[in-house]
Amino acid sequence: MNYKHLYYFWVVAKAGSLTKACDRLHLAPQTISGQIGTLEAAFDVKLFERIGKGLNLTETGRMVLGYADEIFSLGSKLEETVHQLPPTRPMTLKVGITDVVPKSISYRLLAPVLAMDEPVYLDCREAKLEDLLGELAVHRLDLVLADQPMPTTVDVRGFNHRLGECGITFFAKKDVVAKYKGSFPQALHGEPLLLPSEGTAARVRLLRWLTDQQIHPRIVGEFGDSALMKVFGQAGTGMFFVPSVIETEVASQYHVEMIGRTEEVIEEFFLISVERRITHPAIAAITNTARTQLFQDLRTSEKI
């Protein structure tokens, strides 16, 4: 289909007559009639029927007009959008974040990107790891932040870049922490515990560790969203745990109190990208921040 022919048809249909369309297009009637005839031949239909000196749309012509309205309306919006773009557009970084990665960690990893000399526009979306890897495979994402490396069973060309690791810290509502009497971690035995959803790496490691310690807390809820789990913990529903790297801000933000900390259960964080060797400046800023500041600060504080 020739879109120029469709455009001539559209102008005639909107104008209501061939004469008015000629004035608008600055073309001879014979030229426009010939172009519309070519379009009708391509579709093998009649788009207009002549009644006296006027032109009326056929039933098929009305249907084609509806599509033409959408096509040329989108064309106008495209032109308007392009003209409204700033002279220099910022670099766009499309980031996928698995829903179990704490939002404060995501922010601390991504904040340096917005402080770069070259402006960067962040496009962040949150979902399950499998869904995000599918988006990465078709280049709708530049990277994925996750709590585990890309599974070997996933048929996606991607590379794992380990950002760092830390232990975990247990918290509970301040006025109920006193109930957890005894030494940590034995104090967890029989007490209500909130967990991340099944399949998360930290949950698997934690349950294995608790079993080895012969500690059996009472699991009262599981959450796909780490922020929601903290809110339930803040309300006194049960204990919960977070990566130790953010324990100070969690205590302050949610007004909860630490029960104990262990390095025997670790949380790992990965950046998954289609680059084996990172060259994208914004992605390099994320990996540098993780390795030289975020997790490095934790190791330094542990030695003090």
Overview of this structure, please?
The protein is of the alpha/beta class and 304 residues long. The protein has 3 domains: 3-84, Arc Repressor Mutant, subunit A, CATH 1.10.10.10; 91-156 and 269-303, Periplasmic binding protein-like II (D-Maltodextrin-Binding Protein, domain 2), CATH 3.40.190; 165-268, Periplasmic binding protein-like II (D-Maltodextrin-Binding Protein, domain 2, 3-Layer(aba) Sandwich). 44% of the residues lie in helices and 25% in strands. It has 10 helices and 10 strands. The chain has helices at 3-15, 18-25, 29-43, 59-84, 103-114, 129-137, 201-212, 226-234, 247-254, 281-303; strands spanning 48-51, 54-57, 91-98, 120-127, 143-146, 159-173, 192-196, 218-223, 240-243, 256-273. Strands 4-3-5-10-6-9 form a 6-stranded mixed β-sheet, sandwiched between helices. β3 (91-98), α5 (103-114) and β4 form a beta-alpha-beta unit. α1 packs across α2 (18-25) and α1 crosses α3. The radius of gyration is 31 Å and the shape is elongated. The protein starts with a helix and ends with a helix. Mean pLDDT is 88; it is low at 297-304.
Task: Provide the descriptors you would attach to this structure in a database record.
two-stranded antiparallel sheet, alpha/beta, D-Maltodextrin-Binding Protein, domain 2, 304 residues, single chain, 3 domains, Arc Repressor Mutant, subunit A, disordered C terminus, 10 helices
